[in-house]
C-alpha cells in the first residue's frame, strides 16, 4: 500500500477548495498532500488509516489532517451489507472534503495573536484529529452550508470550523507524535516504500535485511535513517502499529485476547500484555472491559 502524492485543486481563484463526492464504494488510495484536509465521510461501515492509526467507524467520520500525513479510507464490512444499508435506509453515501494551505488567507494570517488557538490546532493536525459529538454535528452542517455559499461567508464558515475544533472537548488525536510529516520529495518516495512494506507485513516477522534492501541501504544505515525520520526505532514503530491494530480488534469484541495477540503479530501473550500496557497504560483485558462498560452505559 504505497502512499500517492495527491495534488488537491487549490488554485489562485479561491482561497481553498471544497467538494462533495457521492460514493458507491468507499475506497480511497493511501495518499498524502501538502495541504490541510478536513473530511466528512458518510458511509455505513468504514476503515480509516491515518499515519500509524488504524480504526473503524460506523455511519459517519469527521477528521482533520495536517500536510503530508498519509491517510486513506476503505469499506469494512462487505459490499452487499453496504448496499443493503443504503437501500433500506434510503440514505446515500458521500464525502465532503475541504483542502486549504496555511497561507490561504495570507502568509502571516495564522500568526496574529487572535489566531493563536487556531494555529495550535493546525499544529496538532500533523497527528490527525478525530472530531466527534456535538462538534461533529455543527461542523457537518457548516460544511454543507459552505457547498452552497460564496464570498466572505464561505471564508467565515471555514474559520468557524477551525475555531470549533480549537475549543472542542470532543476531539482526539489519531497518530502518535513524530510521524514523518516533515520530509522532502526524495524522502517521501523512500519512506513510501518503507511504509508500504511495513503495512503489508507488520502482522508477521519483519526482516530487517529485506526492508533495508528495499530502501537501498545497509541494515545499520537503514536503522539510523528510520529513527531520524520517525523519531522511533523500527521495532517501536511496528509495535505501535500492532497495538493500534489490536485495539481495533478489541473494540470489535469478536475474538479472545489470545487470538488478538497472535493476529496482531505478537509471538506470545506476555510480550503482548507488556507492550500493550507500556503504550496504553492498561492491560488488554482492562481495555476490553472499559469498551464494554462504555457500550453498556450508552445502551442504558
UniProtKB/TrEMBL annotation:
PROSITE patterns recorded: HTH_ARAC_FAMILY_1 (PS00041), HTH_ARAC_FAMILY_2 (PS01124)
GO molecular function: DNA-binding transcription factor activity; sequence-specific DNA binding
Entries under InterPro entries matching the protein: Homeodomain-like_sf, HTH_AraC, HTH_AraC-typ_CS, Tscrpt_reg_AraC-type_HTH
Pfam families on file: HTH_18
Domain (HTH araC/xylS-type): residue spans on this chain: 192-290
Record keywords, A-Z: DNA-binding, Transcription, Transcription regulation
Gene3D superfamilies listed in its UniProt record: Homeodomain-like (1.10.10.60)
Name of protein: Helix-turn-helix domain-containing protein
Amino acid at each position: 500500500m504505497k502512499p500517492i502524492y495527491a495534488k488537491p485543486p487549490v488554485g489562485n481563484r479561491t482561497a481553498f477548495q471544497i467538494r462533495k463526492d457521492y460514493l458507491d464504494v468507499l475506497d480511497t488510495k493511501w495518499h498524502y498532500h501538502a495541504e490541510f484536509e478536513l473530511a466528512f465521510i458518510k458511509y455505513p461501515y468504514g476503515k480509516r488509516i491515518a499515519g500509524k492509526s488504524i480504526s473503524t467507524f460506523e455511519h459517519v467520520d469527521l477528521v482533520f489532517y495536517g500536510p503530508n500525513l498519509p491517510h486513506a479510507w476503505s469499506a469494512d464490512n462487505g459490499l452487499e451489507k453496504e448496499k443493503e444499508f443504503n437501500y433500506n435506509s434510503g440514505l446515500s453515501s458521500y464525502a465532503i472534503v475541504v483542502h486549504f494551505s496555511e497561507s490561504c488567507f495570507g502568509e502571516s494570517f495564522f500568526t496574529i495573536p487572535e489566531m493563536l488557538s487556531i494555529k495550535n490546532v493546525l499544529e496538532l493536525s500533523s497527528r490527525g484529529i478525530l472530531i466527534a459529538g456535538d462538534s461533529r454535528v455543527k461542523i457537518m452542517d457548516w460544511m454543507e452550508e459552505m457547498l452552497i455559499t460564496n464570498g466572505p461567508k464561505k471564508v467565515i464558515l471555514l474559520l468557524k470550523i477551525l475555531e470549533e475544533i480549537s475549543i472542542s472537548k470532543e476531539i482526539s488525536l489519531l497518530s502518535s507524535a513524530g510521524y514523518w510529516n516533515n520530509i522532502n520529495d526524495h524522502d517521501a518516495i523512500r519512506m513510501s516504500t518503507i511504509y508500504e512494506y511495513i503495512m503489508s507485513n507488520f502482522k508477521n516477522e519483519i526482516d530487517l535485511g529485506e526492508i533495508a534492501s528495499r530502501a537501498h541501504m545497509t541494515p545499520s544505515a537503514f536503522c539510523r535513517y528510520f529513527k531520524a525520520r520517525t523519531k522511533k526505532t523500527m521495532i517501536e514503530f511496528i509495535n505501535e502499529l500492532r497495538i493500534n491494530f489490536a485495539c481495533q480488534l478489541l473494540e470489535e469484541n469478536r475474538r479472545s485476547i489470545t487470538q488478538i495477540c497472535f493476529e496482531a503479530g505478537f509471538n506470545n501473550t506476555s510480550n503482548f500484555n507488556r507492550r500493550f500496557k507500556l503504550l496504553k497504560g492498561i492491560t488488554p483485558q482492562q481495555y476490553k472491559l472499559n469498551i464494554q462498560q462504555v457500550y453498556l452505559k450508552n445502551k442504558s
